[in-house]
Amino acid sequence: MDLFDRTEQTRTGAGERAILVHMELPDAMGREDLDEFHHLVTSSGVVPAVELTGKRDRPDPALFIGSGKSEELAALVKEHEADVVLFNHALSPAQERNLERAVKCRVLDRTGLILDIFAQRARTHEGRLQVELAQLRHLSSRLVRGWTHLERQKGGIGLRGPGETQLETDRRLLRDRIRAIESRLDKVRKQRAQGRRARQRAETPLISLVGYTNAGKSTLFNAITTGDVYVADQLFATLDPTLRKVKIPGVGPAILADTVGFIRHLPHRLGQAFRATLEETVNASLLLHVTDCSAEERDANVEAVNEVLEEIKAEKIPVLHVYNKVDNLDQPPRLERDEHGQPWRVWISAHTGDGFDLLFDAIAERLAVGWVDCWLKLPPAAGRLRARLHEAGEVLEETTATDGSMLLRVTVNRVHFERLLREQGLKEEDLRVAAPTVAEGEAPSYNSERSPKAG
């Protein structure tokens, strides 16, 4: 059995019976939500058999839950014929190894459980590489655990050498595999950087969805983009990042990115492994922080996401808070503004589509800085410029003057607008005009090519 076969032993499988362990600890970093733990367990596909709870002032250095609770846990494992023990806490390698010896069963801590869910959810080549990298880094400190084939090599005259040789081989294989994965992820990172530079040259804004896992980000993404991202009422339902080009009313073309959901006390090695994915968040023009407004832990979830944003150096990017699932509260959608009059929080329902008009207005207003919204009078020979304006922004209204010139009301990124004018050898002051007057009973003709509203 080689190293990569043994990593499969740490996995949970559908239908496996699990003993859940949750301890109440006074330390904030050791305190975890029990309901969220249950949701994690069911998301992994295992069947909870029984739950062991208790209180401690501090974790036991050797067994985390202490010797008495360990004996109780061993009895529960035997009674329920459990396949795995899941802890709602982070365990040290020594604690995990000692617990496995005590209960004679596989033991997974919170980090291992999250990694297992990530492994099940990853679909793309990049996502699988990132998950494997995080798993191998997690495994690197646990190579001394009591695997059965190594136990037979331990102790006894003449039997120590092979065990030590196997361990050294495992470490070498692990280091080589980590280096190979990091090299391949570097290539992915360069490819993403290329696409990002192309978007920056086109001045296309990037809007990134962030939020606590199961807050409804993918549902909102699908509603805005008419996409087909997998949606389910479970933690980390979607793992791989997805980017789609959309047209936001009042803004024009934009890129919307759906990223992996965050969770409280997200293991640091996960943030490192998913650096390529999270770069879409770090380089965004605007973050849509999606929150389940009906969740009891709503405020704590918002704080957890903010902590992750600080960790990945994205705390200074403009944020629009999107409070989703307002239909669960039987409240109407609404838009709230901060003390400066800027849109700050929008209450919507991604499931029903209620409040989307408020959301689009808020996004347009937050991205309005650096955008031009004006009427232009283009000569008949400027058909190419007209076509480029349709591509680069949104033509809100269009009509034709009696002399054959074209009157357009456009909203477009200023940097891109000025570049288009330079390419055509035109000046803004020569094209800008006041809004045309409309005779009573008449209306401006709206362009049939006007960008459709998203959603």
From TrEMBL:
The keyword Endoplasmic reticulum does not apply. Keywords: Cytoplasm, GTP-binding, Magnesium, Metal-binding, Nucleotide-binding. It is found in: Cytoplasm. The keyword Protease does not apply. Mg(2+) binds at residues 218, 238. GTP binds at residues 211-218, 236-240, 258-261, 324-327, 349-351. GO terms for cellular component: cytoplasm. Residues 205-371 form the Hflx-type G domain. Transmembrane segments: none annotated. SUPFAM superfamilies: EF-G C-terminal domain-like, P-loop containing nucleoside triphosphate hydrolases. GO terms for molecular function: GTP binding; GTPase activity; guanosine tetraphosphate binding; metal ion binding; ribosome binding. Signal peptide: none annotated. Its cofactor is Mg(2+). GTPase that associates with the 50S ribosomal subunit and may have a role during protein synthesis or ribosome biogenesis. Belongs to the TRAFAC class OBG-HflX-like GTPase superfamily. HflX GTPase family. PANTHER family: GTP-BINDING PROTEIN 6-RELATED, GTP-BINDING PROTEIN HFLX. Monomer. Associates with the 50S ribosomal subunit. This is GTPase HflX. It comes from Alcanivorax hongdengensis A-11-3. The lineage of its organism: Bacteria, Pseudomonadati, Pseudomonadota, Gammaproteobacteria, Oceanospirillales. The gene is hflX.
